[in-house]
Automatic annotation (TrEMBL):
PANTHER family: METHYLTRANSFERASE PMT22-RELATED, SAM-DEPENDENT METHYLTRANSFERASE. Residues 63-72 have a biased composition (Low complexity). Belongs to the methyltransferase superfamily. It comes from Gossypium tomentosum (Hawaiian cotton). This is Methyltransferase.
Amino acid sequence: MPISVQNMFKERKFPFLFAFSFLLISVTILLFSYSSSSPSLLLSTNFQVSDPLPPPPRPLPSRSPNNVPVSSTKPVSKTTAAASDVDLNVSLDLKWENCQLGPLAVDYIPCLDNWKAIKELKSRRRMEHRERHCPKPSPRCLAPLPIGYKVPVHWPKSRDMIWYGNVPHPKLVEYKKEQNWVRKSGDYFVFPGGGTQFKNGVQSYIDFIHKTLPAIKWGKNIRVILDVGCGVASFGGYLLDKDVITMSFAPKDEHESQIQFALERGIPAILSVIGTQKLTFPDNAYDLIHCARCRVHWDGDGGKPLLELNRVLKPGGYFIWSATPVYRDDERDSKVWKSMVALTTSLCWKIVAKTVDSTGVGLVIYQKPSSYSCYKQRKEKLPPLCEQKTNQNVSWYEPLSYCISRLPVDRMGNLLRWSTPWPQRLSSKPPSLPSEPDAEDIFIEDTKHWAALVSEVYLDGLAISLGRIRNVIDMNAGYGGFAAALIDQPLWVMNVVPIDAQDTLSIIFERGLIGVYHDWCESFNTYPRTYDLLHASFLFKNLKERCDIIDLAVEMDRILRPGGYLLVQDTMENIKKLNPVLRSLHWSTTLYQGQFLVGEKGFWRPSENDNRKET
């Protein structure tokens, strides 16, 4: 039965009326105070809490490979809710210095430039001095900018020309002047598209490969390529036009800064070497591997370098070798060719094409077997087949093996077939998904999550200028959903699977994307100032137990270009630890929705130079 005001007075319920009136007045005052407050709160000159964005999309499944908790993407209903949790004015009193390495400091790579460790090596015969030797503890100095450094030339113009002052290393111009690798023209380096084996230009060379073997359909059955000893990566750069993504790699050697040239051009590349350790890629990753005069002794150390290529090449995949032993018959080249024939025969590689072009440059194309029949028919079982893996071994500081890697199988033990053609393979079910019943549902949900998050928040809501972004690292890539969601943007993504995360790198390659294993407690194999955007989704959960967040911030500062962005999605606990370090580095930082931290690196260095330009 309804209670009227008259009845309430009759029943002498004065205490209730008094309490009700007081509550009504209080709510009115609070509403008036809130309506008069500002919608955004500026907390410091460098750190701003943004106006609310659209709510982030639905959360990932609880067993996502990124270790994203189910509650991680719950929307923050009001901006003040995010601000009340954290004191954004907290700053660390850190005294930064430039690395004291003379002229070498601008290109400092801690794990490749540890000269003390290199001097103590007992041997350099197998390229040990080009491998990783990380200093302990990690150095906390900053790489200075080259004199005259400018904002890089934007893609696609950068494929053909870059600022000389950003990579001021002219030695390669003189060393390779007859081969049209690179020329200096005024304030620019210009890349004509030549190479040691590309006498008519790299585009003509790419067309020559397809003409030699039409089964190689660029951008369809051939999507992911490894270019060994890539020079300035023109081969990979021109293949981008054909929907092919190439991981170009070379060591940091006397070919001064070739990988730095490649990355400054906006072409995917990484510093690496085939020495004594496995490459940081999973088994059976690449559709095709290319070597044009890459100066690798394939038969060295019992053939281990070529066995390593066999490991990362997919069954049925191709190896293209363009080198003088293929088309010259002098004593030295004949000896190398004879050794190569013996080695490839023992691996059951089949020659599917061998030819010479109009310039006199030749190539041979091998194909890796897609079944065990040839292996079983070998008279000498050398090299032997590798032992059956009981679990996946991440190739991180793993020595090269003298064995033939086993062919991949599905969950039922059947040999895997060739990947779905591109671009369908990007969204198709990857063969390497875990065998759990809900694994496919988790993968589909992960793909939907990243598509929505990138579209609704990253592209529309965050203050990031996509026109300035070309080179991207996803520091905790999971299934590669972030890269997949950006596939139509004019950029490329290096997907990194941390060594302490679920091993999903095979899945990333099966989707037609590229990536590497890495331990973020150590420096990455790249030069300073080579990436425009660093993306870190719930990266710090495992890292903070093994290394200091300050060391990671120094590394992020090293590899990010001035004007580049860091995009972090994480817990407020980790954001509160990271933000003061970034502010001490003079980064501007902005917090969105209480979980998205956007940092922008400026041109500041501990020792300013008037010649450094921000235009």
